[in-house]
Amino acid sequence: MEHIKAALPQPQITSVNQTYWDSLKAGDLMFQQCACGHRWLPARTECPSCLARDWQWKKATGDARLVTWVVYHHAYHPSVADRLPYTVAVVELAEGPRLVTNIVEQDHPEPLRVDMPLALRIEVEGDTSLPRFAVRPPGEAETMAPH
Fold first, then answer.
1. Domain containing 111: what range?
2. What SS3 class is residue 117?
3. What span, in angstroms and rounded, lies between the C-alpha atoms of 6 and 117?
4. Which of 30, 68, 101, 136 is 20 to 30 Å apart from 3, CA to CA?
5. How many domains does the chain have?
6. What are the tens digits of pLDDT across the range 76-106?
7. Cα(28)–Cα(31) distance, rounded to whole angstroms?
8. CATH label of the domain that carries residue 115
C-alpha cells in the first residue's frame, strides 16, 4: 500500500490578509503599520492599539530575534510526521511585530537561546509561501534596528 503524505493545512486568504500572502509569494514579508506608529501581525482591519483603520503595509527587513520556542518530537498533524523533530517559535521582527513560525536550517553548533539573531527564509509548501527563520550565521550582517 502506497503512503500518501498529508498536505499542510492551507491559510484562509481574505481581503484583509491577501497582501501578506501575495508579498510572501513575491519574496517579501509584510506587516501592517498604523498612523499612530503601532506595527502588527497577523493582518487585521484596525490597529490593535488605537483601533484606527488608517494603516499601511510595510516591508520587513527579514531580521528578527528569537523570543521563545518549543521542539516537537510528536506529530500532531500527519503533514509534519516526516519533519520530526521540528521547532515552532515566536520571533520578533526588527520592526516590532511578532509571529509564530518555524526555525529551519538547524545544523548550527550553537543551541537556540532567547534573543538569538534570526534571518527570514521564505519556503514554499505546495502553493503557499511561508515565512520561516534560520539562525543568523556569525558575521552575517544584520539590519536589526531598535523599535
1. 18-135
2. strand
3. 32
4. 101
5. 1
6. 989 889 889 999 999 999 999 999 999 998 7
7. 10
8. 2.40.50.840
Q: Say if pTM beats, i.e. exceeds, 0.85.
A: yes
Residue 24 lies in a domain: yes
Please choose, from the candidates 43, 47, 46, 133, the residue with its C-alpha nearest in 3D space to the C-alpha of residue 93: 133
Is residue 64 a part of any domain in this protein? yes
Cell numbers describing residue 10: 492551507
Q: Does 130 reside within a domain?
A: yes
Q: Of residues 143 and 99, which shows the higher confidence score?
A: 99
Residue 2 lies in a domain: no
Confidence band, pLDDT 50/70/90 cuts, at residue 137: confident
Beta partners for residue 30, in sequence order:
59
Please give the order of strands across the beta sheet that includes 55-59: 39-40, 30-34, 55-59
Q: What is the tens place of the pLDDT at every residue in 30-56?
A: 999 999 999 999 999 999 999 999 999
Residue type, 135: V
